[in-house]
Specification:
- Helices cover 2% and strands 52% of the residues.
- It is built from two helices and 69 strands.
- It is rod-shaped and about 205 Å long.
């Protein structure tokens, strides 16, 4: 089909209509056919000044001026051409209205001969409307299939394109295999709303095409169906006016009206009635009574609430006459002779609906949105003397005025078929506004704090939507996306951190209120946190580092707290949140002592709604060390070993230190030894002092320590024998003075040997060291191997 249209377009481009005296310049050949013809335009004689042109395959082969004689128009035309039997077509240009008319007749040329005679003229009949296209510098190329009442148009029919009543294109149809096609240049620089008329040669009248298109300057629109409806008496599109588009003269007049968006969201292309002062009507005409052959009344409506309101019709209230459409108790009705038939469904949903009443002379049928709602046999008893009115009936107080929108109101003097009515509903590719939720459909389990794509489908006239969310099956709604394109490829939703089994999503058209809702509720699984450690029964020691552990779902961050009063109050472990995925935290045990401790881990963004606590209490204890020895007053001798003793709890290792300056400085004894041993054998260092103390502390935390209560002494005892010191000769029985010096020695023990120290004999075992001397009577026997030894009376290692 596409190839066919393109081949036809080659033929038709040459017939583009000119908007001024045509510049027809014949191609001259050496031979020609002479044509004698009578010329008419729409059945009337052509006039002086009109022109006739002949064409062969789009090439102008002759032009002749019309001459008149006895009120008839004639031409003598030389059709240029060498070859016999070329198919020549004709066009007529009318000087009076500057319009070119098509001629639905061809002749076969006969070079050197004549067609017709001055007594027997060939008839050239120009037919068509007086539409004169306005030429612009740009245009849209249109390829269309042309029908009238869905039956192919016929030779001689003409299609016209219009923008706001101005003709923008005009072409006759071309037949191919019993199908009528048109190729047309629609003049215009900008994208505009284009309407059509089809001039029907057989009825010699123009028929309205309900379909409108948007032009595409510089572009091409292919294979659209341009279908006119015969029998259309009045048609109101409300394109910012109250004009009858059929050109039959039934224009409306009225007041209190506002032009608003239509069902395609095009501004100023439907009319709003306010239910109070709005009204429109057309002067009364018997042409609108429709008594003989039936009729059809149809209009689009959109309303939310009406009591008893006339929408569109011709009727006198209280009498069996006329016809009209109404909204009664929020259901649509069709009245014939005052008798109503009523739709079964309510239509006060603030959405566009097509209401159509068809009367075939016997039966009244009501359609809503192209679907039959009711039918009833009703006699059409009398016509109404009132004019056709929209939005009201001129009877004080009854019925109420219409409050809502009206668009594309039509009157036909024929009953439309059900197919025709269905086509009215779907014209211009309209489909009922509808939004369907694809995901979530319901029944799913979504994880809180996850991301989920909400998907929907919307009909083409849903321009923008709002997305809403409910946790209570629709009792309340929360907006989660305030404005998205209707055809958006989904919405990436951050599922909230809540717990519900009654969640639904609603996608709603902003202007019409049309919405799609999740069929059944879905579930949102809330964030989950489980404390795994500490979970009760543990004992922790201040200063140690222990691991807090948890498992979580649907959380980004967690907040860590602890209590020492079983939950009466809580303290933070850190002043910042921790990534939930870490699952653990190294906690330095705080300086507290309690057996009523617990840990609480909560959602970092909502510490109230989602949290878990240790199942049972645990304990935090403080380390303890106590020094028992030395604890003051002791005297330790340099080089000797003595025992440091302590007790401890909750301490693994201890550190030992001592001071010789009563704590001004400390000297290490041992950096770490197990606390549990409780003692340490200390070799007394050679740091004599009377201001000594020992300190024991937790090797891991020196804060926990204990010190000798009082000072003790470290001593280094010395005794030095001065006399005898060797070489002396002391007589037996004489008194000799043994002398010495000493320090840190209380008493001395004095011994002598007669065999150079092999054996020793006590002189005295307890002489005061401070006296520094002792008078000794020299004993027997005589010897030259004598020695004296003086020692600490308790420690013989301190000697001289």
């Amino acid at each position: 089909m596409k190839k066919l249209i393109q081949s036809i377009s080659l033929l038709l481009i040459s017939t583009a209509v000119l908007s001024a005296q045509p510049n027809w310049n014949p191609v001259i050949y050496t031979n020609s056919t002479t044509l004698y013809a009578k010329v008419t335009i729409n059945g009337l004689p052509a006039q002086t000044g009109d022109k006739v042109a002949a064409f062969v395959n789009g090439e102008c082969r002759g032009v002749s001026d019309v001459v008149t004689n006895a009120n008839e128009g004639y031409v003598t035309l030389l059709i240029q051409g060498e070859s016999a039997e070329e198919n020549a077509s004709f066009k007529i240009w009318s000087e009076s209205n500057d319009v070119v008319y098509f001629v639905n007749k061809f002749v076969w040329t006969n070079p050197g001969n004549t067609i017709g005679t001055p007594l027997d003229y060939f008839l050239i009949e120009g037919n068509g409307p007086d539409w004169k296209p306005v030429i612009y510098t740009n245009s849209t190329t249109l390829y269309g299939i042309v029908t009238i009442n869905n039956v192919s148009a016929q030779p001689g029919d003409v299609v016209g394109a219009f923008v706001n009543g101005e003709c923008r294109g005009r072409e006759k149809v071309i037949m191919n295999n019993d199908t009528a096609y048109v190729t047309m240049l629609i003049q215009g620089e900008a994208v505009e709303n284009v309407s059509f008329l089809i001039w029907q040669a057989s009825s010699v009248k123009a028929l309205l095409v309900p379909k409108h298109i948007s032009s595409d300057p510089g572009g091409t629109i292919s294979l659209i169906n341009i279908n006119a409806v015969n029998g259309l008496v009045a048609f109101y599109q409300f394109n910012n006016n109250l004009i009858d588009e059929t050109k039959n003269g039934f224009d409306l007049f009225g007041g209190g009206l506002t032009f608003v968006k239509d069902r395609f969201n095009t501004p100023n292309t439907s009319v709003a009635f306010d239910g109070s002062t709005s009204q429109a009507e057309v002067s009364n005409s018997s042409s609108l009574d429709f008594r003989k052959n039936g009729f059809t009344i149809s209009t689009w409506v959109k309303y939310s609430s009406n009591g008893n309101a006339v929408i569109f019709g011709k009727h006198v209230h209280g009498y069996y006459n006329g016809y009209f459409l109404a909204a009664v108790n929020n259901r649509l009705q069709f009245y014939v002779s005052g008798i109503p038939i009523t739709a079964s469904k309510y239509s006060n949903d603030n959405q566009w609906h097509l209401v159509t009443g068809v009367y075939d002379g016997m039966n009244a049928t009501l359609y809503v949105d192209g679907v039959q709602e009711a039918t009833q046999q009703i006699p059409y008893t009398d016509f109404s003397p009132n004019p056709v009115r929209l939005g009201y009936m001129q009877t004080p107080g009854y019925p109420e005025r219409y409050n809502g929108l009206i668009d594309d109101a039509r009157l036909y003097n024929v009953p439309l078929s059900q197919t025709d009515v269905s086509n009215l509903f779907t014209e211009n590719n309209w489909t009922a506004q509808e939004i369907s939720i694809i995901n979530p459909t319901g029944g799913q389990r979504l994880k809180a704090n996850s991301f989920y794509t909400i998907d929907w489908t919307a009909t083409q006239f849903i321009d923008s939507v709002i997305i809403e969310f409910t946790t209570n099956n629709g009792l309340t709604m929360e907006v989660i996306a305030p404005s998205l394109p209707g055809n958006s490829e989904g919405f990436y939703w951050h599922v909230p951190k809540i717990n519900t089994t009654q969640a639904k999503i609603r996608v709603r058209h902003l202007s019409s209120g049309v919405s799609g809702v999740t069929a059944v509720p879905f579930i949102i699984d809330p964030p989950k946190i489980t404390v795994t450690a500490p979970n009760g029964g543990e004992t922790f020691v201040f200063g140690e580092i222990d691991t807090v552990k948890w498992v979580s779902e649907n959380l980004d961050d967690v907040y860590l707290e602890y209590t020492i009063d079983n939950g009466a109050s809580w303290m933070e472990m850190e002043d910042y949140t921790i990534p939930a995925a870490d699952g653990k935290f190294l906690w330095r045990i705080p300086f507290v002592s309690s057996s009523n401790c617990k840990v609480r881990i909560s959602d970092g963004a909502d510490s109230v709604s989602f949290a878990d606590v240790s199942d049972n209490v645990f304990s935090i204890v403080l380390p303890m060390v106590k020094l028992n020895k030395p604890n003051g007053g002791e005297n330790f001798i340099v080089g000797k070993s003595d025992t440091i003793k302590w007790i401890s709890s909750n301490v693994a290792n201890v550190k030992l230190e001592y001071t010789t300056d009563n704590g001004s400085s400390w000297i290490s004894i041992l950096t770490s030894t197990p606390a549990s041993v409780g003692s340490f054998a200390w070799t007394i260092p050679n740091t004599p002092s009377t201001n000594c103390k020992v300190k024991i502390s937790n090797a891991d935390n020196s804060f926990f320590a204990d010190t000798s209560d009082n000072i003790f002494s470290i001593k280094n005892p010395v005794v030095t024998l001065l006399s005898p010191n060797g070489g002396e000769q002391w007589r037996r029985g004489s008194s000799q003075k043994i002398s010495w010096t000493s320090s840190d020695v209380a008493k001395v023990k004095i011994q002598y040997s007669t065999n150079d120290g092999t054996t020793w004999i006590v002189v005295t075992d307890s002489a005061l060291a401070s006296t520094g001397s002792f008078d000794w009577t020299i004993p027997s026997p005589v010897t030259n191997q004598a020695k004296v030894r003086i020692t600490d009376y308790k420690d013989v290692t301190v000697s001289s």
